[in-house]
Hints:
Blueprint: E1 2-6, E2 9-13, E3 16-17, H1 21-24, E4 37-40, E5 45-47, E6 50-56, E7 67-71, E8 79-83, E9 89-92, E10 98-105, E11 111-118, E12 128-132
Parallel strand pairs: 4-11, 5-11, 6-12
Antiparallel strand pairs: 1-2, 3-4, 6-9, 7-8, 7-10, 10-11
Amino acid sequence: MNALWIAGVFLVCAPFPWGQASSSGLSDFTQSSTENIIHPIEEPFRVHSVAGTISAERSGEVLPDVLFEIEGPGMERRIRHAVTDKHGHFRISRVAKGTYRFKATLAGFQSVIGTIVVSKSKGVSREIALHLSLAV
């Protein structure tokens, strides 16, 4: 098992081999040419908007050029995406309230998947913070 530091929470995640992707409905998301492990994040991100920062797990360095994709809301299969800038920031504008699946992918790193709940309620986070592990 591997550990991930995500949005101020330390998570322990079991590897998710890409070979199981079709049975888990990940076939609509982009696959990196070097992707072989995908980490699921069990706890959903609850945010006002789909924006955040992605960095390397061990070094903490921000990661440019990470592909961040969302699918939804709900069962809708529409994919929208953003790519992190040189500061590791991404933003997908005008995302309606609802529940979305996400995937973050960068060649040479293990991908991360999970759920985002976009809400205008009080107490939700303003940004998503992800940390990707190097591919082994």
